[in-house]
Request: fold
Amino acid sequence: MYTISNVKLYIDGQWRNGSASRALPIKNPATNEIMAEVACAEPDDIEEAATAAARAFQDWRKTSVFERYGVMRKAAQLLRERVDVIAAYMTMEQGKPLVESRMEIMASADTIDWFAEEGRRAYGRVIPPRRPDVYQLVVREPVGPVAAFAPWNFPVQQITRKLSAALAAGCSIVVKAAEETPASSSELILAFADAGVPKGVVNLVFGDPAAISSQLISHPSIRKVSFTGSTRVGKLLAAEAGRHMKRITLELGGHAPVIVFNDADIQLAAKTMVTSKFRNCGQVCVSPTRFLIQEDVYEKFVEVFLGATRNLKVGNGLDDGVNMGPMANPRRVSAMEEFVGDAEQLQARILLGGSANEGKGNYWQPTVIGDLPVASRAMTEEPFGPLAIMNRFKHFDDAVNEANRLPYGLAAYAWTRSAKTAQQIAANVETGMISINHLGLGFPETPWGGVKDSGYGTEAGMEGLEAYLTPKFVTQLGLSDPGMS
Ligand code: NAD
Reply:
């Protein structure tokens, strides 16, 4: 049994409270009990963090790539060694089952390793010149100190994608992690500190999100911003970043369509999508939500989907065999009530679930709704919860039109045995990522990001490193030129 202790800020190599000693409670979503407190940063503390990052950047950028690689690999190893305790903290503060917490931490360690390696391949290039005595080089330099804002749904992985790309590129960073899930995030930063990352290179703060983002984005030392969270907040931060001419990567909301064609492997499709839908209680930006099922296989798909969903064990994520924990916070439970209430008013069929569990904790039953009108709230807004919608379509174009109807474009899924249909659906759905006939998203080496209101820029993959690098063109006249003598 592990106990979460009070979580501190990490600024310029020191673990400490904020200058006004303010703190927020850390609650267990399975019981609603307060477990500990997280320190809040004041404007002075944020100034210190940004200044420390600016100072440390000057040395870190010159630290050899091989040395940076060594520190990062060590941090990844420490995460793996500490997986039991960090996973317990994550489940206690976020709610997801222990097995998912462990997977997230191990996947984060892989991501750190991958970016450590990729940093060694941040190659430039030589451009053929227009005269023989000129050298033309493109070198890729770190963009500068980074401000990163990460949410509560994946408290380790969401930071890792930003942090490891930044460090590999030679950037320093100030991370504002989620106040609701600070203990596991802080363990990630501790692994880097223990691995020997120099002071000031990595800083961790918590507090008032709007005040901190405003201060950091406008801070002259900060050169790059990365945010994962809602589209609403992403647009606010994009506007601020624009005002201050800062580069920004935005990974925002989604409303993933799942297109199931008549020729799909229905058993495989339905069972795989149940696993994906209810992972992390549906609080995943790529969570499958709008199931668009071709008419002939609608009944069969829904039957298998419901069967597999009924087998899910809902409970405290620390308990053995639990497949789905509570929602991370009471705001999500209220949101589920509103989505389902609206669907009921529109006479949609609630095929499963549709209400909270009795007793303590932010529990919501796995919920499946059939034939939901497109005007409903759940068909328009991101549910970000354990809610799947089963609608029908007739023709290929109907499915594509529905998939592209919303302003979101993060992830999409399709199931078909036809190579031609697979190729056409990949080409026609407006999305940053599409996974066909399996779950294939989210590896360190593959790009992760959306289009339209789902954001811009990419995390992970070689494009993920690119976001933290800036090209510098160097043109040099050779010394053998007679004009130089
Ligand atoms: P929210 O919009 O208030 O906050 C989302 C995240 O942004 C939180 O981590 C919050 O701390 C942070 N945030 C809020 N205002 C900010 C600001 N001005 N500057 C910097 N950070 C700020 O909503 P919420 O209730 O916490 O989450 C619900 C919604 O957020 C969901 O519906 C979902 O769309 C979205 N979300 C998306 C992801 C993702 O992975 N893309 C993760 C978490 C939440």
Remarks:
- Residues 98-119 form the longest helix (22 residues).
